[in-house]
Write a structure and sequence with these properties.
With 604 residues, the protein is of the alpha/beta class. The protein has three domains: 3-23 and 156-262, 3-Layer(bba) Sandwich (Glucose Oxidase, domain 1), CATH 3.50.30; 36-146, PtsI, HPr-binding domain (Enzyme I, Chain A, domain 2), CATH 1.10.274; 268-596, TIM Barrel. It has helices spanning 39-62, 70-83, 86-99, 103-119, 124-128, 130-146, 176-181, 200-207, 219-222, 244-264, 292-297, 322-335, 377-382, 384-397, 413-432, 449-453, 455-461, 469-477, 495-510, 528-533, 543-554, 558-569, 574-596, and strands at 3-6, 8-11, 14-22, 167-171, 187-192, 212-214, 228-232, 237-240, 281-286, 303-307, 341-344, 403-407, 441-446, 464-467, 514-517, 538-541. The longest helix is centred in the first third of the chain and has 24 residues, at 39-62.
């Protein structure tokens, strides 16, 4: 039966494929593919975990006091029976051997199948037994966690595990670290029940440059394993088991999108210069050193944001040491061939927790309000040894190219002072150790209203500022950007947001300091003219967004934009006013350019 699910569009395009469900669990589950050569070893891990749980349950039975109710012993018998049930045992082995899932993923996938079967039972008593199988699987997952796999994640192609059809990933939510595990894998699209347009799961989905819909509420419950699914990343619609006519229509759209991307790729080496001669610096946001290659291929003039926190995530052991970080930063710097690389110090917390924390408050379940808690620079300052270690690694990498240091979520002068003191101390330690480094520029992220309101103070201490619009909008409007229930209130066009951005840019330009935007607004062509009108000449975005933003820049005359900025900023409905002042003008200008036969190559 065909039906539709509606959510929030976060990454444009069309994806068509078979649904692959990642079941949610109260236990954190790692999801990755294993090599074919390690299938038997992974099945062995599962067998050992089952034996461990069986011993635990049998020990509990033996140790049960005589006065214990007989129902308790009967419950343990049920759990032992379920533990060895062939439906759970054999099917889980198939997920490993045929799909090459790791043991944890295979267990959670089979739990999803069994749970649906229980949900469809008419007998209420039998439906309630679903809780027993969930408890058994959680025991197995905990046993597997105590004996972690030595098998690394692999990037399989779609045919490496027996599947011929493309796949789309469906989940309640996907942690950013898990998204990175899937970064070079087989999925053509993502669907999640929760999340907002600028949650980090959405950001990483966009970085994969594949269609995604988040905040789809019941998607993971309604969609079944291997259903045919179409993701309309432009409209935020998921079509499940589409009719042949609908399927062919979406396939036609896919071909049109591919042609558009091909046309945009011709702009790769075209300088981003407006019609009135303003040069715009287009930079790339990256998560890993390997992403630098994509930045260069997209024509980026440097890295405007290296999110170093992704090196700290999805690690079962200790955090990365100084040498490991140094090698990663140096790899990115050298890959950029002399172009600048801006490295942001670790920004964990909120929707980017670490797997193993030295401070438990950073974990979701231990924080009352993680978005307002111990995160970003607050965590770094609370862990001075770790912070100086990262600073030393970044400084050492500066000996191999142009490096800028960016500090996230600063809010007050005391944090500025402590941060600069930590940098000075890290430099002194390198001098004492006779380690080479360069005198790098240090910048602050403006992503909290408090920072935007006293940006003059920040500009006295820092060489540049970078506007993190995602968090700036979140904190200005008091909206959790990862919460789909309030996603409709997340409004980049809100007058307060625009005033804070425009004011920060004006102050930086007045003081002769470099200012850029590295949030999602930078890569959204809907805001390109507005940001240029505010005076921004440096934008940092995911590499896949550079070509479309460049095309918009090539068609823009900033002298005309400046005349309309005051009108937008003074409006009670800036989005509507901007659409009238900028978008309509842009369409007329495009027609005029084409009519005049300008020689500049502006793409499609």
């Amino acid at each position: 039966m065909s039906f539709q699910v509606f959510g929030i569009p976060v990454s444009r395009g069309v994806a068509i494929g078979r649904a692959l469900l990642v079941a949610s669990s109260r236990v954190d589950v790692a999801h990755y593919f294993i090599d074919a050569s390690r299938v038997e070893a992974e099945i062995g891990r599962l067998r050992e975990a089952r034996n461990t749980v069986a011993n635990e349950l049998e020990s509990l039975q033996r140790a049960m006091p005589a006065e214990a109710p007989p129902e308790l012993s009967a419950l343990l018998d049920v759990h032992l029976m379920l533990l060895h049930d062939e439906v759970l045992r054999d099917a889980t082995r198939l997920w490993i051997s045929e799909r090459h899932y790791n043991a944890e993923w295979a267990l959670s996938a089979q739990l999803e199948v069994i749970a649906r079967q229980f949900d469809e039972m008419e007998d209420e008593y039998l439906r309630e037994r679903k809780a027993d199988i969930e408890q058994v699987v959680e025991r197995l997952l905990r046993a597997l966690a105590r004996a972690p796999s030595l098998i690394g994640a692999t990037a399989h192609g779609a045919r490496d595990f027996g599947g011929e059809d493309p796949l789309v990933l469906v989940a309640n939510d996907i942690a950013p670290a898990d998204m990175l595990q899937f970064k070079r894998s087989i999925f053509t699209g993502f669907i999640t029940d929760v999340g907002g347009k600028t949650s980090h799961t959405a950001i990483v989905a966009r970085s994969l440059d594949i269609p995604a819909v988040v905040g789809a509420r019941e998607a993971s419950r309604l969609i079944r394993q291997d259903d045919w699914v179409v993701i309309d990343g432009d409209a935020g619609i998921v079509v499940v088991n589409p009719s042949p006519i609908v399927l062919e229509e979406y396939r036609f759209r896919q071909r049109q999108i591919d042609l558009e991307r091909e046309r945009l790729s011709r702009l790769r080496h075209t300088p981003a210069v407006t019609l009135d001669g303003e040069h715009i610096e287009l930079l790339a946001n990256i998560e890993q050193p390997a992403d630098a290659e994509a930045a260069l291929l997209a024509g980026a003039l440097g890295v405007g944001l290296f999110r170093s926190e992704f090196m700290f995530m999805n690690r079962p052991g200790d955090l990365p040491g100084e040498d490991e970080q140094f090698e990663a930063y140096r790899a990115a710097v050298e890959a950029m061939n002399g172009l600048p690389v801006t490295i942001r110090t670790v920004d964990v917390g909120a929707d980017k927790p670490l797997d193993r924390m030295s401070i438990s408050e950073l974990r979701h379940e231990h924080a009352l309000n993680p978005a307002m808690g111990l995160r970003a620079i607050r965590w770094s300052l609370s862990e001075p040894a770790m912070f100086r270690q990262q600073l030393r690694a970044i400084l050492r990498a500066s000996a191999f190219g142009k490096v800028r240091l960016l500090v996230p979520m600063l809010t007050q002068p005391r944090e500025i002072r402590l941060t600069l003191e930590a940098i000075a101390r890290a430099k002194q330690q390198l001098v004492e150790a006779n380690r080479a480094f360069s005198d790098i520029e240090v910048g602050a992220m403006i992503e909290v209203p408090a920072a935007a309101l006293i940006v003059k103070t920040f500009l006295r201490y820092f060489d540049f500022i970078s506007l993190g619009t995602n968090d700036l909008i979140q904190y200005t409007l008091a909206i959790d950007r990862a919460d789909e229930t309030v996603a409709h209130l997340y409004d980049p066009w809100h007058p307060a947001v625009l005033e804070l951005i425009a004011g920060s840019v004006a102050q930086a330009r007045a003081m002769g300091k470099h200012v850029s935007v590295c949030g999602e607004m930078a890569g959204d062509t809907e805001f390109t003219e507005l940001l240029l009108a505010m005076g921004l000449r440096s934008l940092s975005m995911h590499p896949s967004q550079i070509a479309s933003v460049k095309r918009r820049i090539l068609r823009t005359d900033t002298r005309r934009l400046e005349q309309r900025l005051a009108q937008v900023l003074s409006s009670e409905a800036p989005g509507v006013t901007a659409a009238q002042a900028f978008a309509a003008r842009g369409g007329n200008e495009q027609g005029q350019m084409e009519g005049n036969g300008r020689a500049r190559n502006v793409g499609a």
